[in-house]
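pasting for ref
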Amino acid sequence: MPLDINFSPEIITSRANPLLVKIGKLEDKKHRDAEKMFRFDGVKLFCEAVMCGAEIEYVFVRENAKEKVLSSLERYPETAEKLGCVGRFILLSDSAFDKISLEKSPEGIICAAKYVDNFKKTDKIEGKDISGKAVIVQSVRDPGNLGTILRCADAFGIDHVILSSDCADVFSPKTIRGAMGAVFRKRMTVCADLCGTVTALKADGRRVFATALHRDSAELGRFDLHPADIFVIGNEGHGITPELISACGETVFIPMCGGAESLNAGVAAAICMWEISKL
């Protein structure tokens, strides 16, 4: 049965429409934070958001892609049953849609949603606030790398991702795209004081390993891990700060062959999280 979606009666054709200008500005973090809203593109991400209960304010559909989008949505019957919880569905002329599209090959659907409930900012996290498996990410600036880390955390059963305040924005369109829906599911906390957080976690009985190559670093895979152990992943170019390494007290390195000096931050995080996922 074809989907019955109630679109707003008017098609937006003006590229200068105030709502489109507002959505277009969500590409910038300062506007996302001001509106407490972010945007994402594509049918799959829309379905992930609906199924996870995200508060979707607007869904924009390209006029000439309407039938294609509806046909794609019909392949996700569980999503179709929850479309009544979505805000407004709005048709855009091709030129108006292209004005706010960020995709090279757009599928014809752009969404804007409120910040998810599983995301928060804090000065410091106490050990008792972290349950289950966790990973700490310091100063990963590339949104694609951060998206990969979130996606792998989702895939490997990591419950909580703790981020330094200078990491890439989790609501950046590039992060959202790389995370492939993990932003709607994973508990994420941006923490101003990672050193204090690590100290609190250790006081709560958890081991925290900085992924760094030092003279006394343990080789990953050559010692016993515990399910409560936490890895810290550092900046793509500079790694983890000496202060945070000192707070961790223990370091670990990933053995490599050949002439490679280091791994991409997302890849290193995936390997560490995979080791924890097996426990």
